[in-house]
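Issue: ligand-bound run for glutathione - logging full I/O for the record.

Environment: standard queue, default settings, no custom constraints.

Inputs:
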Amino acid sequence: MITLYHFWESGNSREVRIVLAEKGLDFESKVLNVMKGETRTPEFLAMNPFGKVPVLVDGDLTIYESNIINSYLDEHYPDPPLMPEGAPDRARVRQVIHWANQHLHANLGPVLVESLLKPEPQRDKEMITRRTKAIERAVAELDKRFGSGPFLAGEFTLADAALAPHVTVLGLIGIEVGDRFPRFSAWVERLKARPSYTKSAGPEG
Ligand SMILES: N[C@@H](CCC(=O)N[C@@H](CS)C(=O)NCC(=O)O)C(=O)O
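Outputs:
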């Protein structure tokens, strides 16, 4: 049985829940509230020394880092495959995931925390503005990467799973992509329409 240590509101946790859902894998859910420091206990730090969710346990294996967990799941439970065939296309998927971590997630996480969890007077508005511009640049860059297929690398892959929890919440921080980036917007709607997106949502949706 797979066990997932996660937090419903965590986008990185949702990346893994999406892949579990895509593969039809059940898991035992262990919810840790990161806002209450529940990932900083000695027991949890023994599983992930960085004190972050998600962490996946499968038999003797304990691993952290959402993208590494998802690669493991795709290799160990290959049906349906979430990586394309062929080394060049696989490299392209990994490149998008790496790029998104650097340019999208790195800016989006702090803005979400600052804008949604802090009272208005305490917010670092300069940081919000600077990082929001970086997110808008990341959206423009992603918009250029689509080919003719419905997803980032043709069919749905680990790249889409890595981005879905993040690109679908841009509206929460006032980034309305709308008509400016039609391919990006259509892709976001396709991600939201997948059963794995609904299934991976928390109890509050
Ligand atoms: N690169 C890691 C990032 C994980 C991460 O930042 N997790 C956050 C929740 S989204 C967390 O557990 N934060 C708790 C903390 O830092 O105390 C991944 O993709 O798994």
